[in-house]
Design a protein that fits this description.
By secondary structure, this protein is α/β, with parallel strands linked by helices. It has a single domain, classed as Rossmann fold (3-Layer(aba) Sandwich), CATH 3.40.50.150. The protein is built from 9 helices and 13 strands. β4, α5 and β5 form a beta-alpha-beta unit.
Length: 255
């Protein structure tokens, strides 16, 4: 399809409710789940991040019934829905997504699949509970809206949007959220801050983690913090090697 026709098709899908037509996920971690047609068709076609999906499907030797899983940076909920279907009603999945456009689609997918044990939080995860801003650069349909990167200057072009932030230890300690067996973190450069806000949970409950790395500062902070907590790590991509920016790292507790 030529670029002009592709843009016209994308516009017509976005401008009408055709984008919300129900489809089934064809493969991967959420295979069989109900989904919406557009955008990010790779989600329902089963072709999105195959190494990441394979790593999650291998958790627990292939069975995670009854587990608690956290999805930090859930976007439309591919992993949230897939994990919730796998843990079943005796488990729990908590999905965190601060972008309101992404959160609306995440909520729709949760409803379409009838998953009451999937808990949704329209918040960013950080090292403190309160409020902050995500930088949108004028495009809430982007997958890379984010809390400020280390050293990123707040300018008018950032088009900031106010969001709430959550420190996850603050949810676990009073019992509002089950401690996790597994955590997926894909928060656009803020992973080390998110880990700082769940350090007590990591020390006590020792979940497995997969962390997407977006910047050198995030890589250093994530690896340093988790190695200090006696975690081993490896890239889930076959050719994964340092430097780790742009890769997904699997962290497992040594004890």
């Amino acid at each position: 399809m030529n670029p002009a026709l592709s843009r016209a098709v994308a516009w017509s899908l976005e401008a009408t409710r055709l984008s919300l037509l129900p489809v089934r996920v064809r493969g991967g971690i959420a295979a069989g789940a109900r989904w919406t047609l557009f955008p990010w068709t790779s989600y329902w076609r089963g072709t999105h991040e195959p190494e990441m999906q394979a790593a999650m499907m291998a958790l627990g030797g292939g069975s995670i019934v009854g587990w608690c899983c956290w999805d930090l940076g859930a976007h439309f909920g591919l992993y949230s829905v897939g994990l919730a279907r796998r843990v079943g009603p005796t488990g729990e999945v908590a999905a965190f997504e601060p972008n309101p456009v992404s959160f609306a689609r995440l909520s729709r997918h949760a409803r379409m699949n009838g998953l009451p044990w999937l808990k949704l939080y329209e918040s960013a995860v950080s090292d403190r509970s309160g409020s902050s801003e995500i930088y949108t650069y004028g495009d809430l349909n982007s997958t890379v809206t984010h809390l400020a990167y280390d050293g990123e200057v707040r300018e008018e072009s950032c088009r900031p949007l106010a969001v709430t932030t959550l420190r996850l230890d603050d949810l676990v300690i009073p019992g509002g959220l089950r401690p996790p067996n597994f955590v997926k973190i894909d928060v656009e450069g803020h992973g080390h801050r998110a880990l700082a806000g769940m350090e007590g949970t990591l020390q006590r409950h020792r979940p497995v983690l997969i962390v997407a790395i977006h910047s050198p500062e995030e890589a250093a902070g994530v690896i340093g913090r988790l190695e200090a907590l006696d975690y081993a790590f490896a890239a889930i991509h076959p050719d994964g090697r340092a430097p780790w920016v742009g890769q997904d790292l699997l962290f497992t507790p040594r004890r």
